[in-house]
Write a structure and sequence with these properties.
Layout lengths: L1 H34 L3 H14 L4 E8 L2 E5 L1 H11 L3 H14 L1 H5 L1 H43 L3 H9 L1 H27 L2 H31 L11 H26 L2 H9 L1 H22 L3 H37 L40 H16 L3 H9 L7 H24 L4 H4 L7 H24 L12 H12 L4
Antiparallel strand pairs: 1-2
Amino acid sequence: MARRLLLAVGFGLAAVTPAAADYEEEFKAGVQAYSEQRWNDSATAMLRALRQRPTESADRVSVSAFQRVAYVPHTFLTIALARLDRCEEALAAFTRSEAQGIAARDARRYFEEASTAANGCRRNLLADSVDSTRSALEEVRELAAQVEQSVADGVGARVLSENSSIATRIEQARELLRAAGERFDGGMQASDLAAIREAADLIERTRTEWSTVRRDVNIKIAGAAPASPPARPQPDTGLRDATAAVEAAEAARQRLADRLRAAGSQRALRRRAPLRNRWEASGRQLEQLRADLRGADPGTLDRITSEARRLSTAFSQLERDVAAEERAETAAQQVPAERPEPRAAGDEGDETPTAAPGRDEVAAPPPSGPATTEAGTAEQRLGRAARSYFGGRYDESTRLLESISFPSRRELEVQRRLLLAAATWSQSRLATAGTPEAVATHPEEAGEPAAAEESARLRDRAAELLSQLWRAQPELEIPERFFSPAFRAFADLQRSAPSP
């Protein structure tokens, strides 16, 4: 009996030990991939480790001959997913790491890096959500204005007075639109991503309500006898113009669709939610215009013509914006890649101290501090700063750019100063409302006074950097393919400003 029990225990241990070894091996592979900035490999390995052991632990895993790291796969997964621009998943991973509380205590350096990455993701998601939600809100307000205009006088006013149910629904739609606007404004002021997304859902409900009301109003107007003969264009002329306008909009959308079949354009659309949302929203509007045209009466043809022409312009603008995003991605890819820098083990109490770093040691992010004069290292950081700038990570870009200098290499120093000015200027636009367009085009939505002061400080700093750049190299031209029209206009103002 004792022998059978001993054998059973032995077989049980044999079954458990490989599984434990498996999750440790996966975690080790993920940490090594992190040190080499192979973010996809790191994320894949951490997910495999989590499938075997989903709970983080203070137990240290040997990741190299000289280094042991607490088992915190959620923390490393956050960093890798953020670097891959998979921000929703990165935030979910960080929430789990934060809730378990192990990394904050036993892997502080990595937890702080994950926290910084998660905050960057929140800012990026907030900026994208603000852009797309504001665009959707403007579309619904325009739709509501069209319905209000159609029932303001003439046959529409008579239809409204004779149909109390339609009047009630219009009032309900007005209330929905007001609530959606307030929810959006509140989310903007608080920089609350969840509130912005709630506002987006409410805006879509409001869009559906106004679209249904418009359809029913148009049906009632078409069936009502006009009080007096309307002074309208001949139906054939109006129908011909509306049909031509809709066909032109369809052709513009088809041209854009052809462009989006290219790999670069597809990546641009996937990476930038505002572009994707505009593409989808304009497609919905075009479908609605096609439906309206099929059953249109002479009174609605002018509206269809006007909206279709506006859509054609919108498709052309979207095509230009997609092209600009492609150029930015191309510019980021042309920046030379950097190699990870070694870091001594035992730093900040996260690893076991050792006299010398090992070959497989985890590399830390480049430290901030005094500017380096080692050309190789400085060039690598310049490349990383450029990729951070074109990826919208302006804080990281400015930190890297301020940590380097090229006193004996004028061309690289000019590039550094120009990128630093652009990143600082972008920070100033993000400081008050969470979206690059907000400060310039929606000053009424600016945040707290402290945020406005910070925005002004950053803007002044960007202006100072540009003024120094123009004085040092007055013939410099800012590349159109890499920098936005708004930044180039700001830079031109500093070129023409009087010298202090």
